[in-house]
Specification:
246 residues, transmembrane helix, 2 domains, DUF3105 domain-containing protein, 11% strand, single chain
């Protein structure tokens, strides 16, 4: 029996509906894929933003001289440099021993046999070595800028600290400098209103013996490249128990 025109029309309608459904499903698939890609790019962008922002900030700050970073010494409200008897010269303790220090932060003391590498200048709370390693750096003539959790929580001030540390690049002995965090787990807080500290282990004019060595400390309210420049000039790496060690 011959198919009627009506049968052909119905088949054509069904076929057209099938093709329309396929096109609609493809559009939905493309829309879902596009949305997933957009969300993925957004997530990647949000994750990369802090890194990109930090790089741009450091690039801008790198063009400034050390003394132009942060605030001026007067604005940093730095306290007078203090000096105390240094202890712990060549007193190496096992790395398994938990070392604590009475001063916040330490400018001398017993320490681990190894030290933080000269090539690394800036640390955060997530990657900072234990204090025992950094105190050994002090014995080798390093100046350490310690910043507290107030500075760590302020992006602009932390960027200044990092930029200051980057002014002491490489492994030249003249650039024995480290910026590291001081946290609540390390010991007492800095004096009220002070959020930055600089420390140095000085020979104190002695001829190599421990007696007379001094732990030097200066507190400031804010990061100041100008204050750092003065501190490192007054207390060079040569004024330390072991200046020729890296």
């Amino acid at each position: 029996m011959a198919k009627t025109s009506s049968d052909k029309d119905r088949r054509a309608v069904v076929e057209q509906m099938r093709r329309d459904q396929q096109r609609a499903e493809k559009k939905r698939t493309y829309a879902i894929v596009g949305a997933c890609v957009a969300v993925g790019l957004l997530i990647i962008g949000l994750a990369a933003y802090p890194v990109v922002k930090d790089a741009l900030t450091q690039n801008e700050l790198s063009r400034r001289d050390l003394a132009a970073l942060g605030v001026k010494s007067a604005a940093a409200n730095c306290q007078d440099v203090s000096s105390a008897t240094a202890t712990g010269s060549a007193d190496h303790r096992p790395e398994t021993e938990q070392l604590t220090y009475p001063d916040a932060p330490p400018a001398s003391g017993s320490h681990y046999p190894t030290w933080a590498p000269m090539s690394r200048k800036f640390y955060t709370a997530q990657d900072r070595p234990e204090l025992g390693y950094l105190v050994h750096n002090l014995e080798h003539g390093y100046n350490i800028l310690w910043y507290d959790e107030t500075i760590a929580g302020d992006d602009a001030k932390l960027a200044d600290v990092k930029a200051i540390a980057n002014k002491f690049p490489g492994s030249d002995f003249e650039n024995k400098f480290i910026a590291a965090p001081w946290t609540g787990e390390d010991g007492d807080p800095f004096p009220k209103g002070m959020h930055v500290a600089m420390t140095h282990w000085s020979m104190g004019g002695t001829n190599g013996n421990e007696e007379g060595q001094r732990g030097i400390t200066q507190y400031c309210a804010e990061p100041s490249g100008e204050a750092v420049a003065t501190f490192v000039e007054d207390y060079p790496y040569t004024d330390s128990p072991e200046p020729n060690a890296s």
